[in-house]
Amino acid sequence: MTSTRTHGAHGPDGGHGGGTAPPPGEQVITDDGVRLWACRTGQGTAPLVLCHGGPGLWDMFGDVAALLADRADVVRWDQRGCGRSAPCDGPWTGERFVADLDAVRAHFGFPRVTLLGHSWGAQLALSHALAHPERVAALVYVSGTGIGPDTDWHPAYRENFRARLAEDPARLARWRELADRGPRTEEERREAAVLRWSAEFPDREHALAHARRMADPWFGVAESCAAALNGERARTWGTPELAAACRRLDVPVVIVDGGRDIRPRTAVDSLAAALPRVRRTVLPGAGHLPWVEEPAAFRDAVAAAL
Question: Where is the AB hydrolase-1 domain (predicted)?
């Protein structure tokens, strides 16, 4: 999901301003000593690791974990410098985040896992599968933006975002006011994020309530992380080499799209066309977080991968 550019509870370097380390028993130590928050739930036997969106956000998969609790051994985690993970100064690179994800897998003793990535997390999960296909049993790619350049989707996304927010003129006006403001209070940063995230939900009556749930608890956005990883994608995604690597990927992939996502779903066609073992499910009434509008259908799509 495209993240709001705020410092939130984080300092200017993207680390938590005065944040605390993950609680004992809920941390993964990476090979460079960074502590990541992690949480393991579920009664199923299939190991499933969830990769949250952003970049620079935190795990918001409580509903997904509950939805799949009887089918999977579910691990949620906050990416480095984000959410409940310990403060750090990076490095903010895709390669580093792939290594962090593999550290989470290894920490819980899983030789192979099913990866479920959402939005930016879908890119991360795909990158891990490309780097370590022998450690990935299946990949569930949710609401990603494909393997083409950002120009394949970002201009349409910006247009669709403003059009959906404009369905409530007062909401759009308030978001613009906050977006154009200089220094903001922490509550104003959170309000701006909630207004932005409300555009992700096609049900306009309940969109604001859904977005507020995303921001509860609120950890702030790791701005330096978001800027660096978005910049890296803009420079390196959409290459012939990436498409060729996807064509060689011998891992079953389930692509799950919300038919009413404001990011054009045609952007994902490039990935679907390249993968040799792929199944695609479109949930027509869903937006960017398809488990919100169509939980039963979303569960079925993920269960098929498990």
Answer: 47-295
- pLDDT tens for 67-80 read 999 999 999 999 99
- pLDDT for 29-42, tens place per residue? 999 999 999 999 99
Range of the domain at 73: 27-149+220-305
Q: Is residue 196 part of a domain?
A: no
CATH number of the domain where residue 35 is located: 3.40.50.1820
Spell out the SS3 assignment of the chain.
CCCCCCCCCECCCCCECCCCCCCCCCEEECCCCCEEEEEEECCCCEEEEEECCCCCCCCCCHHHHHHCCCCEEEEEECCCCCCCCCCCCCCCCHHHHHHHHHHHHHHCCCCCEEEEEECHHHHHHHHHHHHCHHHEEEEEEECCCCCCCHHHCHHHHHHHHHHHHCCCHHHHHHHHHHHHCCCCCHHHHHHHHHHHHHCCCCCCCCHHHHHHHHCCCCCCCCHHHHHHHHHHHHHHCCCHHHHHHHHCCCCCEEEEEECCCCCCHHHHHHHHHHCCCEEEEEECCCCCCHHHHCHHHHHHHHHHHC
**pTM, whole model, 2 decimals?**
0.92
pLDDT band at residue 290 under the 50/70/90 scheme: very high
